[in-house]
Write a structure and sequence with these properties.
It is globular, with a radius of gyration of 17 Å. 45% of the residues lie in helices and 12% in strands. The two termini are 20 Å apart. It has two domains: 150 residues, HAD superfamily/HAD-like (Rossmann fold), CATH 3.40.50.1000; 69 residues, DNA polymerase, domain 1 (Orthogonal Bundle), CATH 1.10.150. Helix 8 runs parallel beside helix 9. The chain has 228 residues and is α/β, with parallel strands linked by helices.
Length: 228
């Protein structure tokens, strides 16, 4: 009997990198310079965090920007993020060790890894190169490949399809309410970390396990979660 190969699907922001401070700082700088808007933490988490830039701009400035203008502003904001604040990024504690464990010869026969992020491809490539993860993932899926953002499950279903895994053989690593909802709506197991949102929110979204970060987490632990 052939045992189906398991898949671990990594979100990026808040799962691989502690990027919310950098994204907040970027929005505060960019919005003040380009949009005449003061972005507070409350406004950031209410209208911006977890959304595509175009969706955030539409929420903040209803009807002000055409789709083309919103795309241009989004690209400018992300370039600012990489150039001005990217060097400040730090990995989530334990995540690099976890990725190394999943990529080790005994383990990678049992599990395949994919990066599934709402970020644009340029940001994903920046993070992968910054932390030496260019060869860590069998597939990379970005927000540019789907029309609907999380909590729509499409991006996670696409990730499962790319690595040839059934949804119930997938374990998603998430940090956000919308991301956990997307994983559960895709029929997947979800481990969430409290790097971006409080435990209560992640629990409400349906996370199967909630951790502070990935210190001490390895494949033997994740395997028990996905198979329980």
């Amino acid at each position: 009997m052939i045992v189906p190969r398991k898949a671990v699907l990594f979100d990026m922001d808040g799962v691989i990198v502690l990027s919310n401070p950098a994204h907040l700082a970027t929005w505060q700088f960019f919005a003040a310079e380009k949009l005449g808007l003061k972005v507070t933490e409350e406004l950031f988490f209410r209208y911006i965090s977890g959304r595509k830039n175009e969706e955030a701009l539409a929420a903040l400035f209803p009807g002000r920007f055409s789709p083309e203008e919103a795309t241009r502003l989004s690209n400018e904001k992300e370039a600012c993020y990489r150039e001005r604040f990217g060097p400040t990024l730090e990995p989530v504690p334990g995540v690099l060790e976890l990725i190394r464990d999943l990529s080790s010869p005994p383990t990678k026969r049992e599990v395949v890894c994919a990066l599934v992020t709402s970020a644009i491809a340029a940001n994903a490539q920046y993070v992968l190169h910054r932390f030496g993860l260019q060869d860590a993932f069998a597939a990379i899926i970005t927000g540019e490949e789907v029309e609907k953002a999380k909590p729509d499950p499409t991006i996670y279903l696409l990730g499962a399809s790319r690595v040839g895994a059934a949804p119930d053989d997938c374990l998603v690593l998430e940090d956000a309410y919308a991301g956990v909802l997307a994983a559960k709506r895709a029929g997947m197991t979800c481990v969430a970390v409290t790097t971006s949102e409080p435990e209560e929110r992640l629990m409400k979204a349906g996370a199967d396990v909630i951790l502070p970060d990935f210190r001490g987490v390895d494949w033997s632990y994740l395997r028990t979660v996905i198979m329980s």
